[in-house]
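stage 2 :: seqdesign
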């Protein structure tokens, strides 16, 4: 019912200081924010305000990563392979008008304008850990809505087993797409049950503001228990499909990148051991948690699977 997250109607300086206060306090949350807001500690909060508060102990030390780092240290190969250069090169990238085509094996295909998306789906705030396969991590307050809501509107047809996502292909505006050593456009995929999981977000903003181009504006995926590359940016197409999609990184380097890409400290990547990570803004390293700390919510999705084979 409340379509505007409280952060959107709070002047920026108040938003920033209130966030720091909440995180510093270990987490108070739900009641302090507008109804339905998912904000809390770095762990996701149940939407219901009657959910028991998580113990503050594993969260009090996890501060939000600074806005400067979240918007200044980016992987977005369409613009640059250098994380520090992406923001400048993406500056001025136009994200309106923008359409997102939802189709494939659905009963109700639909093309949304980004403004329809913002009107149709109540935006909420979710604070998630974000873990790149390069073994660095952040804590980011996203604004967005569960992908499940959009998929429910589309009504997956029988036989649809996966969701395939596609980034804009426009080499004039995304200069690296002129480089043929990659197989553009960027593609990602999820199994349908992963896509329907409540943690899986379509994000339109962060820190209570519309997302900037470097973070995948106007709409990008966020799957907090998987390596960051699954969280595809600047999406124009979402298709329900029968077969497992081949992602951009699977196509580029199949030995290094599997379909699942769940954060897993026990399965090293050939170039980056995964047992620890560097939290941006912190000294020293943290131990990497299975499923990036979301095992309680998502491990059951992989019951009976060999996670070394299905990496
Ligand atoms: N289209 C597209 N999406 C992408 C990428 C990319 O290069 N192109 N990089 C991925 C990687 S490797 C990471 S770690 C995250 C980075 O998101 P951030 O810059 O918002 O932190 O975006 C992911 N989504
Ligand atoms: Mo990444």
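stage 2 :: out
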């Amino acid at each position: 019912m409340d379509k505007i997250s409280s952060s959107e109607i709070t002047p920026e300086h108040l938003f920033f200081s209130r966030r720091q206060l909440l995180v510093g306090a270990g987490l108070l949350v739900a009641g302090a924010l507008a109804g339905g807001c998912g904000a809390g500690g770095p762990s996701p909060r149940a939407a219901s305000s009657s959910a028991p508060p998580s113990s503050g102990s594993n969260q009090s030390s996890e501060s939000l990563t600074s806005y400067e780092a979240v918007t200044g240290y980016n992987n977005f190969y369409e613009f640059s392979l250098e994380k520090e250069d992406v923001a400048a090169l993406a500056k001025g990238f136009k994200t309106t008008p923008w359409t997102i085509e939802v189709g494939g094996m659905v009963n109700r295909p639909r093309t949304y304008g980004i403004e329809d998306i913002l009107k149709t789906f109540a935006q909420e705030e979710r604070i998630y850990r974000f873990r790149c396969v390069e073994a660095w991590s952040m804590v980011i307050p996203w604004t967005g809505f569960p992908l499940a809501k959009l998929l429910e509107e589309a009504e997956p047809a029988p036989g649809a087993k996966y969701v395939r996502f596609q980034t804009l292909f426009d080499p004039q505006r995304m200069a690296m797409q002129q480089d043929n050593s990659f197989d553009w456009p960027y593609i990602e995929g999820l199994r349908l049950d992963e896509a329907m999981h409540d943690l899986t977000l379509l994000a339109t903003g962060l820190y209570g503001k519309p997302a900037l181009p470097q973070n995948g504006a106007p709409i990008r995926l966020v799957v907090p228990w998987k390596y960051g590359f699954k969280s595809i940016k600047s999406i124009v197409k979402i298709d329900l499909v029968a077969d497992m999609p081949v992602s951009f990184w699977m196509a580029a380097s199949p030995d290094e990148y599997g379909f699942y890409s769940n954060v897993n400290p026990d399965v090293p990547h050939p170039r980056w051991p995964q047992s620890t990570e560097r939290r941006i803004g912190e000294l020293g390293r943290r131990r990497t948690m299975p499923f990036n700390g979301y095992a309680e919510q998502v491990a059951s999705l992989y019951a009976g699977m060999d996670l070394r084979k299905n990496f």
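stage 3 :: structure notes
- Residues 142 and 206 are 4 Å apart (CA to CA).
- Confidence is low (pLDDT under 50) at residues 1-15, 20-58.
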